Amino acid sequence: MSAPMNYLDGNAAAGELSRIFAMDITSAEGQCANCGAKGRFAEAHLYMQCPGLVARCTLCGHVLLRFVNTQQHIFLDLRGMTYLSLNTTQQQDASN
Ligand SMILES: [Zn+2]
To answer: Which residues are close to ligand 1, an ion, with C-beta < 5 A?
Structure first.
């Protein structure tokens, strides 16, 4: 018997993350700092039942990103990713 799926995909983070990123990072490619898996942020498993957002690696479950929005501060933890790569040409094409 499998556990119920209690996460969305990374696309669900687009609204919250647009508060601090000028570019849509859901289309960015990142690398998991734990297992080295590379993939689009939109493919991450996104947990929204916590005080903020938690994105986890689809392969090993390692936390890739934590985002907490309080009344006065936004806390962003990206240390679960080795890098996050944004394609600037795609962003420009999308706005034209
Ligand atoms: Zn991983």
So the answer is: 32, 34-35, 37, 57, 59-60, 62
Q: How far is the CA of 71 from the centre of ligand 1 (A)?
A: 31
Q: Cα(17) to centroid of ligand 1, in Å?
A: 21
Non-local CB neighbours of 79 within 8 Å, separated by 6+ positions? 33
Residue-wise pLDDT tens digits, 33-54: 999 999 999 999 999 987 899 9
pTM: 0.78
- Cα 21 to ligand 1 centre (Å): 23
CA 72 distance to own-chain centroid: 22
- Structure tokens that stand for 41 in this block: 């942020």
Written in H, E and C, the secondary structure of 63-80 is EEEEEEECCCCEEEECCC
Decide if 12 contacts 64 (C-beta within 8 A): no
Contact 41, 12 (CB under 8 A): no
